Amino acid sequence: MEVPAALWRKHRTGELSAEHAATLVRAFEVDWLGHPPRGGRFAVVALTDRVLNEAAGLCATEGLRGYDAVQLASASAARAADPGCRSVACFDSALRDAAARRGFVLTPGG
């Protein structure tokens, strides 16, 4: 939900045309859901008590909004399960800064 919302927000602010936003949302959906014979490209992280507790802590220590804190806590859980999982995709500057402080590679680069 976060990626399509961010792309449509870019459209509302005039940074993307409706056509480009729709194209990018469709491309994300293919990456997320996959298509036969290939599955999606993303790791799915369960929203556990541990992830939520870490997110609550990130709200306090990093000043993140709730959903952004859940995103970073989920990325941390994915990295704990697979150390090769090092990238975080986000546009929000506070989330980007917090992720960078935790050693994540930021996408899009900046």
Describe what this molecule looks like in 3D.
Helix 3 packs across helix 4 (66-81). The protein has helices at 2-12, 18-33, 49-62, 66-81, 93-101, and strands at 87-89, 105-107. Helix 5 links the parallel strand 1 and strand 2 (105-107). The protein has a two-stranded parallel ribbon. The protein has five helices and two strands, in the order ααααβαβ. The model has no long low-confidence stretch (mean pLDDT 92). With 110 residues, it is mainly α. The chain has two domains: 2-33, no CATH class; 49-107, no CATH class. The chain is globular, with a radius of gyration of 15 Å.
Number of helices: 5
Element-by-element helix/strand order: HHHHEHE
Helix content: 55-70%
Total beta strand runs: 2
Task: Profile the largest sheet.
Answer: 2 strands, parallel
What is the CA-atom radius of gyration, in angstroms? Answer: 15 Å
Alpha carbon gap, first and last residue: 23 Å
Low-confidence stretches: none
β-sheet strand percentage: 5-15%
Going across the biggest sheet, name each strand in turn.
1-2
The structural class is mainly alpha
Shape descriptor: globular
Count of discrete domains: 2
**Average pLDDT for all residues:** 92
Write the layout of secondary structure elements.
Layout (H helix, E strand, L loop, with lengths): L1 H11 L5 H16 L15 H14 L3 H16 L5 E3 L3 H9 L3 E3 L3
Parallel strand pairs: 1-2
Helix pairs in contact: 1-2, 3-4
Short description:
The chain has 110 residues and is mainly alpha-helical.
Note the main attributes of this structure.
single chain; 110 residues; mainly alpha; 2 domains; two-stranded parallel sheet; 5 helices; globular
